[in-house]
């Protein structure tokens, strides 16, 4: 019983082996028959006046890199070519029902398809990829390739831009009457595309063109695949745009900073330099072209213009702040403009009233600001100098003189002479006292005038300080509004693209 099972297994293996040998023999025999008297350099047509119809299709696999500085795109695609070779025909029944065969492209004729906008110098060997041949002579050649092509960028709406990068395929050696190039489908295949972190694939429309070049009278057809990609702007917004917006917003603090700090101009210039550094970073990314100004470039120009204007106005405000050091009063028109109109706009009327109470150089009358007028005083009656001296002499109390021992008067002196000497002594003391009082009165008058001038100077300085503060607050509101409008315009701007590839 066991030897019968062994014989059955042996016969089965012989039958399977003979079948495999027959199939291998059929494929080998078919290749030998197909390549007999076959030329890889001649077009595979029986009638030489008929062109070879080449159908081209691609499947975009990945966008490896887009060099915006040099405007070069590096991408990975699967190229799909199909044409009909009239010398490759066989009957399936003669070759054990063989429906397709794979052959190296080095052994068959293949079209010299070229990427016209290729920027790579070295030639890519593609002979290692085999082609599939069907019984009716159709040749299908599918192979992957890394393309490095030129892509002209339009950075008008950067970082909200959308680019159109073409792949222009055509024959380099055959004209349209020898090799007719056409597209396999109306668009490229996007089903196998690997998402890119920077670019979003929108569409791959295909167009066929026939171009007459100056060298030759025959047309040269080409098939162009337009890769429409849209930039993902989130990276640029968080790493470039938002820091720039914050830097521009910091410049508004300069209008709120007191002029006494001495750092207003330094702050604005520092912010201006920081914004210039960010602008240089953007310039390194953008391609050097003078056709358009990018949207982000327009934003930077607007921001730098605002900062430059704010620097000039900051210097103007500081000049107003220190204008009172020379005692020059505020002009009436400026006083009325700032204390009455601008103070109401910036909601600083209470501050103006409080300042005027501390330094009453000016006062508010019926809501208008006018210089404070001195109340008229009743003129005093001018007194004579003799009356003043009499009052002073009456108010003087002389210190008691020490008692002198009686001295014998000379016989030559009489009582009248002694009285005259005492009167002369008293008159001399009153005159010295009057001189001293006049000096004291002069110094007191000078001190009073100096104190009044000092108070007036402090009032004038305080008035100029208040003018500078009010104008500073007005500029803060104006520049905050302009910065907000500029920022919202940049962040909310969404361009509408309607691409046309015809």
Descriptive overview:
The chain is of the alpha+beta class and 502 residues long. The chain has two domains: 34-232, Neurotransmitter-gated ion-channel ligand-binding domain (Acetylcholine Binding Protein, Chain: A, Distorted Sandwich), CATH 2.70.170.10; 236-372 and 476-492, no CATH class. 43% of the residues lie in helices and 20% in strands. The chain has nine helices and 13 strands. The strands form three sheets. The protein has a six-stranded mixed sheet with strand order 3-5-6-2-1-8, with no helix packed on it. Strands 4, 7, 9, 10 and 11 form a five-stranded antiparallel sheet that branches. A two-stranded antiparallel ribbon has the order 12-13. α2 runs antiparallel to α4 (264-285) and α5 (295-321) packs antiparallel against α9 (415-492). The radius of gyration is 52 Å and the shape is rod-shaped. 21% of the residues are buried.
Concise synopsis of the structure shown:
The chain is an alpha+beta fold.
Subunit organisation of the chains:
single chain
CATH topology of the largest domain: Acetylcholine Binding Protein, Chain: A
Total DSSP helices = 9
- Strand fraction equals 15-25%
Low-confidence region ranges: 362-423
Radius of gyration: 52 Å
Alpha-carbon distance between the termini? 80 Å
Mean pLDDT: 78
Number of strands: 13
What is the structural class? alpha+beta
Order of helices and strands: HEEEEEEEEEEEHHHHHHEEHH
Name the CATH superfamily assignment of the largest domain.
Neurotransmitter-gated ion-channel ligand-binding domain
- What helical percentage do the residues reach? 40-55%
Instruction: Using the alpha-carbon principal axes, give the shape.
Output: rod-shaped
CATH architecture descriptor name of the largest domain: Distorted Sandwich
How would you write the strand order of the largest sheet? Answer: 3-5-6-2-1-8
CATH top level assignment of the largest domain: Mainly Beta
Family: Belongs to the ligand-gated ion channel (TC 1.A.9) family. Acetylcholine receptor (TC 1.A.9.1) subfamily.
Pfam families: Neur_chan_LBD, Neur_chan_memb
Subcellular location: Synaptic cell membrane
Keywords: Cell membrane, Disulfide bond, Glycoprotein, Ion channel, Ion transport, Ligand-gated ion channel, Membrane, Receptor, Signal, Synapse, Transmembrane, Transmembrane helix, Transport
């Amino acid at each position: 019983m066991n030897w019968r099972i062994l014989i059955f297994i042996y016969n089965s293996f012989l039958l399977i082996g003979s079948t495999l040998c027959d199939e291998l023999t059929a494929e080998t025999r078919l290749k030998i028959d197909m390549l007999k008297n076959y030329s890889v350099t001649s077009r595979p047509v029986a009638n030489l006046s008929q062109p070879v119809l080449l159908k081209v299709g691609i499947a975009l696999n990945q966008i490896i890199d887009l060099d915006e500085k040099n405007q070069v795109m590096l991408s990975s695609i699967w190229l799909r070519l199909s044409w009909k070779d009239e010398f490759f025909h066989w009957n399936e029944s003669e070759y054990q029902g063989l429906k397709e065969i794979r052959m190296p492209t080095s052994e068959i004729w293949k079209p010299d398809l070229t990427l016209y906008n290729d920027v790579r110098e070295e030639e890519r060997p593609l002979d290692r990829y085999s082609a599939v041949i069907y019984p009716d002579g159709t040749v299908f050649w599918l192979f992957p390739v890394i393309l490095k092509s030129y892509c002209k960028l339009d950075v008008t709406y950067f970082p909200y831009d959308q680019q159109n990068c073409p792949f222009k395929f055509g024959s380099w050696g055959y004209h349209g009457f020898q090799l007719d190039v056409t597209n396999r489908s109306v668009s490229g295949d996007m089903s196998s595309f690997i998402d890119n972190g920077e670019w979003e694939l929108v569409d791959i429309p295909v167009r066929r063109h026939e171009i007459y070049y100056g060298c030759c009278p025959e047309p040269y057809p080409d098939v162009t695949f337009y890769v429409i990609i849209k930039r993902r702007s989130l990276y640029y917004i968080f790493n470039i745009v938002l820091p720039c917006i914050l830097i521009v917003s910091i410049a508004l603090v300069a209008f709120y900073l007191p002029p006494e700090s001495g750092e207003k101009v330094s702050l604005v210039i520092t912010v201006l330099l920081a914004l210039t550094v960010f602008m240089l970073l953007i310039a390194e990314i953008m391609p050097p072209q003078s056709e358009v100004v990018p949207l982000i470039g327009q934003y930077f120009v607007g921001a730098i213009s605002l900062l430059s204007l704010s620097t000039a106005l900051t210097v103007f405000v500081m000049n107003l702040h220190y204008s009172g050091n020379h005692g020059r009063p505020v002009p009436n028109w400026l006083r009325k403009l700032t204390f009455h109109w601008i103070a109401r706009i910036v909601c600083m009327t209470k501050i103006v009233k409080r300042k005027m109470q501390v330094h009453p150089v000016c006062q508010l009358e019926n809501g208008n600001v006018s210089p404070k007028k001195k109340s008229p005083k009743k003129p005093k009656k001018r007194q004579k100098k003799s009356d003043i001296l009499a009052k002073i002499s009456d108010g003087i109390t002389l210190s008691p003189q020490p008692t002198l021992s009686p001295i014998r008067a000379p016989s030559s002196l009489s009582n009248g002479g002694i009285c005259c000497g005492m009167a002369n002594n008293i008159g001399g003391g009153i005159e010295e006292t009057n001189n001293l009082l006049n000096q004291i009165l002069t110094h007191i008058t000078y001190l009073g005038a100096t104190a009044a001038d000092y108070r007036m100077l402090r009032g004038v300085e305080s008035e100029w300080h208040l003018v500078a503060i009010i104008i500073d607050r007005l500029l803060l509101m104006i520049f905050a509004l302009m910065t907000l409008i500029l920022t919202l315009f940049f962040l909310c701007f969404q361009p509408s693209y309607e691409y046309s590839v015809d």
